[in-house]
Structures are given as structure tokens and as C-alpha cells.
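Hi F.,

I've been meaning to write this up properly since the lab meeting, where we talked about keeping a consistent format for the predictions we share between groups. The idea is simple: the sequence comes first, exactly as it goes in, then the C-alpha cells exactly as they come out, then a line or two of notes. No screenshots and no reformatting. I'm using this chain as the first example so we have something concrete to point to.
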Amino acid sequence: MEETDLAWLQSRLSHFQKEVSERLTGFVLPRGSAPVPQLHHARSCAKKAIRAMVRVDQEGIEVPLILPRLCNMMVNFFFVLTLVINQRRDIDEVPFVSKSYGKL
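Output, unedited:
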């Protein structure tokens, strides 16, 4: 993995963010038909990978900085792709409203 690969992913993320900029307003419930659930699952796995890398780093084993950066970008990319797919299918997301904290 090189910085150029990260730059490519960032350019794709930026492209899709522009397409769904009006939908990027908050948290949504992971709903939709394939491949949306799979993308939400991939997002969850990327988040778990970041947490695992933090634990490894806390144990004194150096984690190359590009790895958590890549995983974090993948988290965002997978989320934005779910919005793109649902928008193209004319499906509205269900906003997540915390019962603990109320509307933010």
C-alpha cells in the first residue's frame, strides 16, 4: 500500500461525497437491499480493524501510520457508498436518533 493508493481512494471518496452531499447530515440506520448491508458490514469490520491496531500499538508494537489511515478512509468510503446506492435507487435512509442523547 502506497500513498498513491490512498490518494486514489480519497479521490473516489470525494467524488461520491459530492454526489450525496445533501444526505451527509448525520447517522443513519443500516438499511437497504444488497449490496448496502454488505457495505455496512464491511464498514463495521474496518472499524474493528482500527480498534485492533490501536490495541496493538498500545502494546508497544508499531503500526505503520498508513494502515489506520487506510482503514479510516475505508470506513468513510463504505458509508458514502451506501448513501450513493440508496440515492440512485431513490431510497431514503432512516435517520438514527439516540434514545440516550435525544436529537442532536
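Notes:
The mean pLDDT is 92.
Helices lie at 3-19, 36-58, 66-88.

If this format works for you, I'll send the rest the same way.

G.
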